[in-house]
Amino acid sequence: MAANDNFISAPYPTIPSGTKIVNRYLIQAILGKGGLGRTYLAFDSYRFNEPCVLKEFAPVMTSTEQIEKSRILFEREAQILYNLKHPQIPQFYAAFTAENRLFLVQQYVQGKSYYQLLQQRLRQGQTFSEQEILTWLLDLLPVLEYIHDRGIIHRDISPDNIMQLYDEKLPILIDFGVGKQAVVSEKFQQVSSAVAQRTFVGKIGYAPEEQMNFGICYPCSDLYSLAVTAIVLLTGKQPNTLLNLYTLEWEWRSYTNISDTLSQVLDKLLNRNPKSRYQSATEVIFALQEISNLNRSVIKPNQQFTIDKPQVNKNIVTKSKKSLEENSAKLTINQNYFSPNAKIVKYYEKQLAYYIGPIASLIIEEILTNNSIDSYQELIEALMINIPDVKQQLEFKRNLV
After folding, report:
1. Where among 107, 126, 152 does a domain terminate?
2. Structural domain range at position 143
3. Residues 145 and 293 grouped into a single domain
4. Do 285 and 377 have their domain in common?
5. Long-range contacts (CB closer than 8 Å, 24 or more residues apart) made by 267-270
């Protein structure tokens, strides 16, 4: 680190431009700051001065207990980011400690945020079209599917944190910020720890009530924020304009002209009650695929999910789709009469798992293998009897019919 180390002592002043961290990362500018840290643009002298993002742990709180909890979250993030390997998520490079400060190093995404892209449109008297938003949603939902399947919640989705690279087609989800991650359990009962449960992060207007009021997040909380971002891009209006502050209901439809089918999907994502929203990115993909006016060549998120670089066309969503199709083909015993769609089978499995846990996959396999099922209605009825509670059986059926 540079000889002038007076910025290291509390309360963590901003690191000056020109400072070299661990004799490697040369600070260029500050990119942003939040309650738990700052983000810098730096040059990596070990990688031919390649630009990178340097995240510094610099909490604003003074309580020793709070700082220790934040430090634990910061170190947890390093492990989480290390395990994320996805072409639409910035690559994680390193984590280290220097002069009692913690740092993370990530790929620098060179492009424009969707906030910047929207401002460009507005200057031309335009916003994003319905078709653009449909494609955009189907490009991003597999990314959320990827992180949620690993128990990770972004917690800060907004136009600022979705980037469009200059030389790529797909949006990039950035700013898996310090201490934002939390692992959730089934049925909204609890998160993995008290620390994660009460970590208040998120942008006002974009984050749902359960996140802003209680610091608790679920996968559907990210989906809520994604929907807010979508209606902002569609209307060109900020959330405070679209949300009725008296009723706390979203009143956005009058600002744009889109189909009722897409509007209904977005409204369900924006529901105040977490349990009334779509519960997974997979469900939303399925819902969007049901929109009748969407050309089938557009509604293939797994095809759009690739970045135009050699050897990166394979990804977990494509593999997941292939595996799901293979399994569905194996499970179908009456090809002439009823062949359940693989995505619908997966959707039913996730709904059933909400009530009975991971055993849902085994039950579906057994039913499709050993029973003569001739329709989705029969499949639903065969599944619901495996839920012990009668009221929950009816709730399960209502959600699917």
Report:
1. 107
2. 111-304
3. yes
4. no
5. 269/220, 269/223, 269/224, 269/226, 269/227, 270/224, 270/227, 270/228, 270/231
pLDDT score for 387? 83
Query: What pLDDT, in 10s, does the model give residues 251-267?
Result: 999 999 999 999 999 99
Residue type, 63: S
pLDDT digits 0-9 by tens, 304-334: 333 333 333 434 334 444 444 454 444 333 3
Measure Cα distances from 388 to 186, 275, 298, 356, 396 in Å. Answer: 17, 20, 41, 8, 12
Residues 267 and 396 in one domain: no
Tell me, yes or no, if 5 is annotated catalytic.
no
The answer to whether position 2 is within a domain reads: no
Residue 8 covered by a domain: no
pTM attached to this predicted model? 0.66
- SS3 of residue 89 by DSSP: coil
- Residue 385: pLDDT band (50, 70, 90) is confident
- For 62, phi then psi, to 5°, come to -115, -20
Q: How far apart are CA 337 and CA 256, in angstroms?
A: 43
Q: What would you report as the CA-atom Rg of the chain, rounded to the nearest whole angstrom?
A: 23
Q: Do the domain assignments include residue 15?
A: no
Confidence of residue 370 (pLDDT cuts 50, 70, 90): confident
Residue at a domain's end among 56, 82, 107: 107
Given 156, 167, 222, 389, the catalytic residue:
156
**Encoded tokens for 186:** 């089934």
Rounded CA separation 106/54 (Å): 7
When divided into structural domains, the chain yields a total of: 3
Residue 378 lies in a domain: yes
67 class by beta-carbon count within 10 Å (0-12 exposed, 13-18 middle, 19+ buried): middle
Distance CA 43, CA 31 (A): 13
Residues 149, 230 share a domain: yes
**At 26, which CATH number?**
3.30.200.20
Cβ atoms of 338 and 375 closer than 8 Å: yes
